[in-house]
């Protein structure tokens, strides 16, 4: 019996979109920084894998478009703004690519499948952003910018799979649940 792994074309595209600036640490990097390097790839791959496991072809396409928009706008802004990193290594600080990549996966899961599927990915994406500040590669605004880009692209291009969603809401003097639906 012959066994082979055949990857769908859209998975190859997802992998290709993650390659710019991809590195998984080196011998000099500490564990915290390396964990952020791994999570920037693992979170969007996991999100795509969940859509694949659920046989959600429209969701996979929406993920790819939102991820492509996130990657393109992240690197476009880096080239246009040329903000120096806190460690002085180069001028590609804003926005954080690690954070935008990680939040792209988390925001996709949130928008497409709801909060219960997304909250672990958001925790890991926030940790990824923290690793960038901790490693002195970014400041907090770089991380917030990367997260905002990814969330914006996903809220624009990804549609909820279920017609009714329930999400937690918190604000100044407000805590509750928001119920929304498509009719």
What would the keywords be for this entry?
183 residues, two-stranded antiparallel ribbon, 6 helices, mainly alpha
Descriptive report:
The protein is 62% helix and 9% strand. The protein has 183 residues and is mainly α. The protein has one domain. The chain has a two-stranded antiparallel ribbon. Strand 1 and strand 2 form a beta hairpin. The termini are far apart. The N terminus is likely disordered.
Share of helical residues: 55-70%
What is the SS-derived class? mainly alpha
Mean pLDDT: 85
Radius of gyration: 17 Å
How many distinct folded domains?
Answer: 1
User: Helix and strand succession?
Assistant: HHHHHHEE
The count of DSSP E runs of length 2 or more, i.e. the number of strands, is 2
**Low-confidence region ranges:** 1-5
Count the DSSP helices. 6
Question: Main sheet?
Answer: 2 strands, antiparallel
Strand content: 5-15%
How far apart are the first and last residues' alpha carbons, in Å? 49 Å
Q: Judging from the principal axes of the Cα atoms, what is the shape?
A: globular
Strand order of the largest sheet: 1-2
């Amino acid at each position: 019996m012959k066994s082979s792994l055949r990857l769908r074309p859209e998975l190859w595209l997802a992998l290709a979109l993650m390659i710019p600036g991809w590195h998984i640490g080196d011998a000099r990097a500490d564990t915290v920084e390396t964990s952020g390097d791994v999570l920037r790839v693992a979170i969007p791959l996991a999100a795509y894998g969940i859509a694949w496991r659920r046989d959600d072809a429209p969701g996979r396409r929406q993920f790819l478009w939102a991820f492509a928009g996130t990657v393109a706008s992240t690197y476009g802004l880096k080239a246009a703004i040329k903000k120096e990193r806190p460690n002085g290594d180069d001028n590609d600080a804003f926005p954080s690519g690690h954070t935008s990549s990680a939040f792209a996966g988390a925001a996709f899961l949130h928008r497409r499948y709801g909060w219960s599927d997304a909250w672990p990915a958001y925790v890991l994406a926030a940790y990824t952003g923290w690793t960038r500040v901790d490693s002195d590669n970014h400041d907090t605004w770089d991380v917030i910018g990367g997260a905002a880009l990814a969330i914006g692209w996903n809220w624009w291009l990804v549609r909820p799979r279920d017609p009714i969603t329930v999400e937690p809401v918190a604000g100044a003097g407000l805590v509750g649940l928001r119920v929304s639906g498509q009719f």
